[in-house]
Amino acid sequence: MSRTVISGGLVITANEELEAEVLIEGERVVALAARGSEVADGWREGAARVIDATDRYVLPGGVDGHTHLDFPFGGTFSADTFETGTRAAAWGGTTTIVDFAVQSRGHALREGLDAWHAKAEGNCAVDYGFHMILSEVTDGTLKEMDGLVEEGVTSFKLFMAYPGVFYSDDGQILRAMQRGADNGGLIMMHAENGIAIDVLAEQAVAAGRTDPRYHGEVRKVLLEAEATHRAIQLSRVAGCPLYVVHVSAAEAVAELAAARDLGLPVFGETCPQYLFLSLDNLAEPDFGGAKYVCSTPLRPSEHQASLWRGLRTNDLQVVSTDHCPFCFSGQKELGRGDFRKIPNGMPGIEHRMDLLHQAVVEGHISRRRWVDLACATPARMFGLAGRKGTLAPGADADVVIYDPRAEQVLSADTHHMNVDYSAYEGKRITGAVRTVLSRGRVIIDDGRYTGSAGDGRYLPRATCQYLD
Length: 468
Fold this sequence. Notes:
There is one protein chain. By secondary structure, the chain is of the alpha/beta class. The protein has 14 helices and 20 strands. Strands 1, 2, 3, 4, 5, 6, 17, 18, 19 and 20 form a 10-stranded mixed sheet that branches. An 8-stranded parallel sheet has the order 7-10-11-12-13-14-15-16. It has a two-stranded antiparallel sheet with strand order 8-9. The chain is globular, with a radius of gyration of 21 Å. 56% of the residues are buried.
């Protein structure tokens, strides 16, 4: 069995920071030992490879629990395939993703899951699992949920938005939540009042307000907060945990905080775009705001303080990307003249770890909280704890060597996502991924991609371990 030692770095997990050597045998972390100890010195002598991490951080690989690769939306598909998207994830220090398989209306969950397995198998650069989107809640799909949980698809997403596409009404949501309470599946919720939003959007277009900025204006903060409140109350009735995705507004954070103050098993996720971008981006001229159309939408910048506070107080537990990229040319442009036709989604899978390190640099969060939000908690939330999100004996050897002093400028000219723009074009940040190991195999080697399609494995998942 091959032996790798990572030497000289500062090991950072969600729980501790220590000057330690990391011993990897095959695909697993075997042990950590104090630098300079006889044990650590002996490891290096017998190693097939020693990676020098001097003056760098040694982190667990990132876990992105919210991606949409090769995803159908608005008459087109997200621009990143499982091959291109997972390769970009690797470049950014993310070694595990959980993508969303989609049930088509009128079809079984199994058909959707099988289709997503076919898209991903043999194409992924990093390990992957699946959530299941419920587009219809019927007696048949409720029964199917039980079987999927047993085989490791342990989370299910429902939508209060997008009537006629993904939308479920309160009765359907309640039934799915009741099933989750019985089988241990985690219910994930897109919390926006889609019925009301559609009314406002129709009125805006009829009045000639068709530019991208109106996408943000009609998807009002209060309609996110109302839906978040309603989802929480339905979960209380059903007796099931609730995970609210892409929280963007201070009022929605307040709903989550109030529920958690009552001791309820309610969790929230936000995304880098809500932390670093704002409604001002949606108003960029010459249809440039279309690049930033996603749902929930970008908010006025004053909401960012509440999001950062929620991340520090643990009223928000996870930062995922909601990576769902559409090229500006030929895809976002479908909505010229009607913002409702702009495909909803933004690129981000490559830059999450870097942007959160920038948050460390700027004093929003600590280094350990960085790792907690990006690695450890998503692993626990989605049933991957013990394997992913940490550097501990027995864990998969998913490791990132990170240079905290490097400087870089984010740009479409240098990123590896299959999309023709960067949401952070020209942004200067401090910190950069240098080397990435996936299950002990080096896939980014000091700035060179050495992995290949098919390196990643499918991950059946346990039920949510955040409740243990």
